[in-house]
Every structure is written in structure tokens, then in C-alpha cells.
């Protein structure tokens, strides 16, 4: 019990309720703490190791990073050494890792690896990662903050196409990013079929996988027997999360092709789950739809959701003046809008 209380006290101290002192150079001859980032490829992913140099009695630490969430996705992290670690806090393009030793043990001295982060690449190009601040706590529970700014430019590189039919397609990079995230798949012949239209069941499955929604088993739709077995868990999860409600007769109509406005409404509901919707300024549907010559084709029930998608920059028209709300969504469009939802939500 004593150790549990100590761990709790340290975590409160590390995560913001304490008052650290800030390290300053005093010109003395004793070596100061410094920190380094080392980056390397690891089985197709990007591994980042944080190392402390000239450490003195480090009992606990809090590391804060910024990174390019449009190109990198944190998939694993670990703190080096024994003790207790807080689950990484990921918020947009920021990550926090906190770790403490437990019991009456000495703090770490000298040079030591503090933590390892593993990123999956989800977009090509140069991605910047920085160690923005380090807080160290000694065995007397005295905390010092080091406002460091160590930056690494990670060249993610051109993503290799796993599909044979998307080279030079307008959505190629988003399709590859979506595939890297694991929420879309190709076909057995190696194709993606980017211009093929998407069913309601297919789009629900993409959105559920992308958001890592909790599993559910029994959707409450009246046409349950017509929903393919593979799609039932996704339909159930999407229904439980409030992403879809079905038609007036409570049917899902899994095999029906989904329209662009139906997809936009589901994306807007997902924006509530990710917190993105709360960041949008208030705008009337009339103002948001003004540039589009086919705005009269937007269903009244979809106006609010479409407005949210347009404001967030997740959806645009098929041309500068055509929104095409009643047209069916393509696989390429589905990959793009779900990918943008994740990126703009900081996921």
C-alpha cells in the first residue's frame, strides 16, 4: 500500500499538479543532463530511442513529444528499467510518457536509455519529431523540468504501393495511408478498385476499424438476417457508437450503395466521438453550401452533417461547384475522407 501511494504521488507530480523547478546553466564544471533521440527503421516501422546523458539520481521522469500525426502513428512505447509506467497520453500531435521506479531503490545515474517509441508510417515525406520537455524526479521527490527542443526530421520515404491499380490515381497516397492504418483492404488479385462504389456495410466496417470502436455482436436492425455475417459486428459497433441509425423501418440495408451525403453524416457523427466537432466554428448550412450549384439536392436531414464535414475540410465537392450528395461514394473517396477524419482529429 505504501508503494501504491508513492506511485500515485509521483504520477500526480509528473502529470502537472506539482511545481517543478526549471534547470538553468550555472557555469559550473559539473556535466549537465543532456538528452538525445536516435531514429532507425525497425521491421518497416520507425523506432525512436530517448537517451539521457549524465543523469543524476533519476527516480522518475515525464517526457513530452510533438510529432507529425499526418505521417506517423504511435503503435507502441515502453519505458526502460523496472517500475511503473503510465499508458502514453496521445493528444493530436503530442505524446506524453511518464515512468517511475518503485520502492526504496536508487535513482539512475550516468547514461541510460529512458524510453522507446515505435511509429507506423501512414504517409510519405519528411516527418518532424521533437522532444519538447523533460521532467526528472530524484529519490527525494524533487522535480526539475528541462525545456529541451531536440528535433529529428524522419524521412518516411515513398510508400510502396501494395495495390496494382492505383499508381498515379488522385487518391493514391491516401489509399496507401489508409491501408497502412489497417482500415481498408484490397482484393485477392492485388487490386484496390478505387472507383468501385461502396456499400453501407463496407463503409461502416471502414469507419469502425479506423476508430477502433469496441466490439459488439448483435445489431438492433429489423433486417438482421439480410446483413452478411462478416458485417454484423461492424454494424453493431457503428450502431452502438451512434454512427448510424438505419432507415425509418429500422432496417440497415447492408448491401445498398452508400451515398456521399449518407457517408458525410456518418463522418460528422464520428467527429463528435473524436472531439473534432467541438473545435469547429458555428456556420449555417446555407453559408457552407452556398458555393455548390447542386445544393438543392442535399436532403434536409443531412445538411448539418455535411456542413460539419465541409467546415472541417474532410470533404470537398467532386468539383469546385458540385457536391454530388446523391451520388454513390467510391472506395477512393471513402479512404480519403476517413483518413482525413483521423488526421484532423489527431489520431
Q: Explain this structure to me?
A:
The protein is an alpha+beta fold. Helices cover 26% and strands 26% of the residues. It has 8 helices and 12 strands. The chain has helices at 2-17, 172-181, 200-211, 232-240, 260-274, 285-289, 303-312, 331-344; strands at 21-22, 34-42, 45-58, 60-67, 72-79, 84-85, 89-91, 94-100, 108-121, 126-137, 143-146, 150-155. Strands 1, 4, 6, 7, 8, 10, 11 and 12 form an 8-stranded mixed sheet that branches. Strands 2-3-9-5 form a 4-stranded antiparallel sheet. Strand 7 (89-91) and strand 8 form a beta hairpin. Helix 2 (172-181) packs across helix 8 (331-344), helix 3 (200-211) crosses helix 4 and helix 3 runs parallel beside helix 8 (331-344). The longest helix has 16 residues, at 2-17. It starts with a helix and ends with a helix. The model is unreliable at 1-10 and 24-31 (pLDDT under 50).
Q: Quote the average pLDDT.
A: 84
| Large-scale geometry | elongated
| SS-derived structural category | alpha+beta
Alpha plus pi helix count: 8
What is the straight-line distance between the termini?
36 Å
> Strand fraction band?
25-35%
Q: Helical proportion?
A: 25-40%
**Radius of gyration computed on alpha carbons:** 24 Å
H-E string: HEEEEEEEEEEEEHHHHHHH
- Biggest β-sheet description: 8 strands, mixed
Amino acid at each position: 500500500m505504501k508503494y501504491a501511494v508513492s506511485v500515485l504521488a509521483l504520477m500526480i507530480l509528473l502529470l502537472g499538479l506539482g511545481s517543478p523547478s526549471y534547470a538553468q546553466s550555472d557555469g559550473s564544471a559539473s556535466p549537465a543532463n543532456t538528452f538525445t533521440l536516435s531514429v532507425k527503421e525497425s521491421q518497416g516501422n520507425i523506432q525512436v530511442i530517448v537517451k539521457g546523458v549524465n543523469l543524476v539520481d533519476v527516480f522518475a521522469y515525464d517526457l513530452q513529444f510533438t510529432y507529425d500525426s499526418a505521417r506517423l502513428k504511435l503503435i507502441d512505447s515502453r519505458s526502460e528499467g523496472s517500475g511503473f509506467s503510465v499508458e502514453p497520453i496521445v493528444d493530436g500531435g503530442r505524446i506524453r510518457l511518464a515512468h517511475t521506479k518503485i520502492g526504496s531503490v536508487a535513482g539512475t545515474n550516468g547514461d541510460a536509455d529512458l524510453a522507446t517509441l515505435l511509429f507506423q508510417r501512414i504517409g510519405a515525406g519528411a516527418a518532424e519529431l521533437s522532444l519538447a520537455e523533460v521532467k526528472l524526479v530524484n529519490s527525494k521527490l524533487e522535480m526539475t523540468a528541462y525545456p529541451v527542443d531536440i528535433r529529428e526530421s524522419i524521412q518516411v520515404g515513398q510508400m510502396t504501393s501494395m495495390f496494382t491499380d492505383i499508381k498515379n490515381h488522385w487518391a493514391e497516397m491516401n489509399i496507401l495511408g489508409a491501408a497502412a492504418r489497417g482500415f481498408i483492404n484490397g482484393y485477392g488479385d492485388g487490386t484496390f478498385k478505387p472507383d468501385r462504389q461502396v456499400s453501407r456495410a463496407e463503409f461502416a466496417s471502414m469507419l469502425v476499424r479506423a476508430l477502433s470502436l469496441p466490439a459488439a455482436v448483435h445489431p438492433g436492425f429489423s433486417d438482421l438476417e439480410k446483413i452478411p455475417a462478416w458485417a454484423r459486428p461492424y454494424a453493431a459497433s457503428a450502431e452502438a457508437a451512434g454512427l448510424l441509425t438505419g432507415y425509418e423501418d429500422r432496417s440497415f440495408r447492408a448491401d445498398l450503395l452508400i451515398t456521399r451525403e449518407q457517408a458525410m453524416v456518418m463522418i460528422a457523427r464520428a467527429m463528435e466521438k473524436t472531439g473534432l466537432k467541438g473545435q469547429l466554428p458555428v456556420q449555417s448550412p446555407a453559408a457552407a453550401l452556398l458555393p455548390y450549384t447542386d445544393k438543392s439536392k442535399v436532403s434536409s436531414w443531412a445538411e448539418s452533417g455535411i456542413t460539419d464535414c465541409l467546415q472541417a475540410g474532410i470533404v470537398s465537392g467532386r468539383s469546385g461547384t458540385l457536391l454530388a450528395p446523391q451520388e454513390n461514394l467510391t472506395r477512393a473517396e471513402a479512404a480519403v475522407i476517413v483518413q482525413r477524419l483521423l488526421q484532423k482529429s489527431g489520431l
